[in-house]
Amino acid sequence: MEAEYLRHGVPLADYQLTKADHRRQREAVQVHEWVQRQLAEAPPWSDERWEEMRQLLGSPTPPWELQRWQLRLYCGHVIEATRNRNSPRPDGGVCDKKRCPDCGLDPAVIVAFEPLGPAAEPPAESHSLRSSRSTRQPPADRRSKAELVAENNALRAELEVLRDQA
Ligand SMILES: [Zn+2]
User: What is the 21 CA–ligand 1 centroid distance (Å)?
Assistant: First the structure.
């Protein structure tokens, strides 16, 4: 059974920003600036430290565990992105914003979204493994794991950006 994917603010091309969107964007910018200030004051990381962090984050999620989404960002650009397939919406937790690849606005909060489809077909054996597991696990556990994986992916992306800046 697939997750029930939600949509918000469709059609994405006609979406009008709300007061709540402006507030979320302001908050995201404040958090971003705070993090930048903390980073500027923190001592630079050694190569060992970067390697440690990369190992902590583990390996990237395989494509068949991902769902493709169309996202409209605060700046008005509509982009495509992937999220863990168990997440019913693409803007949970730390994934509610990203850097716009079109205009460079960073952060840009997600204001509207629409599900597109799976990123890849699952390999046969991993599919049967997952369906037998999903009958035993309560939904709450699956959701929290999905959120963890999504946060993990976001952290890894953040880490690569920081690494480039260091
Ligand atoms: Zn943009």
Answer: 15
Structural tokens at position 146? 């999905």
38 CA from centroid of ligand 1 (Å) = 26
The whole-angstrom separation of Cα 118 and Cα 65 is 8
Q: Are 124 and 68 in contact (CB under 8 A)?
A: no
CA of 101 to the centre of ligand 1 (A): 7
pLDDT value, residue 126:
53
All residues at 6 or more sequence positions from 119 whose CB lies less than 8 Å from its CB, including other chains: 63, 64, 66, 67, 68, 82
Residue 78 alpha carbon to ligand 1 centre in Å: 8
Structure confidence at residue 135 (pLDDT):
46
Q: How far is the CA of 104 from the centre of ligand 1 (A)?
A: 6
pTM assigned to the model: 0.69
Q: How far is the CA of 3 from the centre of ligand 1 (A)?
A: 29
d(CA 36, CA 116): 33
Intervals of the chain under pLDDT 70: 1-3, 125-149, 165-166
